[in-house]
Amino acid sequence: MTCECHDNVPQYTLEEVSDHCHPDSCWIVYVDKVYDITKFIDEHPGGFEILLEHAGTDATSVFKGTGHTKEARDMLSLYFIGNLVEEERIYKNKFQKGKKCRSCLRKKKDDEKKQSISETVNTIVNSKTINS
Ligand code: HEM
């Protein structure tokens, strides 16, 4: 039932995440995904204290509850390190099979573009070879 896009990333239990609850190693869970935000602590516009208060925990509701903007949600991907193990996920619908995440859809589009460019280049090269 996991998202095909993210099957190959490390999986962590909530207990493992809970070991990373200090400034030297600060992880949080957001919507069943695990983020290492250690490098971000000092840059957080809402201050470092609040991050450390929730370090090592599932911070989904508190992150949502503090009304973060789309920019803040997008920033999370910079710190993504893996998923919660399947049996501890509570947002299973986000990982449904066949449902691609945004970054995978973007990658698919890029791959299609590259493919089409390389086909065009091949056509040009072939026609030049034939004509020469
Ligand atoms: C433990 C969970 C978190 C809590 C409780 C929290 C709390 C807050 C609060 C209270 C503010 C408002 C600051 C103000 O307006 O004075 C804020 C702003 C902000 N936070 Fe967090 N934060 C959390 C995690 C994160 C994470 C993981 C990121 C990004 C990786 C992030 C990015 C931001 C950004 C960019 C802002 C500026 C306003 C915005 O764009 O939403 N926060 N945060």
Automatic annotation (TrEMBL):
InterPro entries listed in its UniProt record: Cyt_B5-like_heme/steroid-bd (IPR001199), Cyt_B5-like_heme/steroid_sf (IPR036400), Cyt_B5_heme-BS (IPR018506), Cytochrome_b5 (IPR050668)
SUPFAM superfamilies: Cytochrome b5-like heme/steroid binding domain
One Gene Ontology MF term: metal ion binding
Record keywords: Electron transport, Endoplasmic reticulum, Heme, Iron, Membrane, Metal-binding, Microsome, Transmembrane, Transport
GO cellular component terms listed in the entry, alphabetical order: endoplasmic reticulum membrane
Compartment(s) of residence: Endoplasmic reticulum membrane; Microsome membrane
Domain Cytochrome b5 heme-binding: 9-85
Membrane topology reported for the UniProt record: Single-pass membrane protein
Superkingdom per UniProt: Eukaryota
Family recorded in the similarity comment: Belongs to the cytochrome b5 family.
Name by which UniProt lists this protein: Cytochrome b5
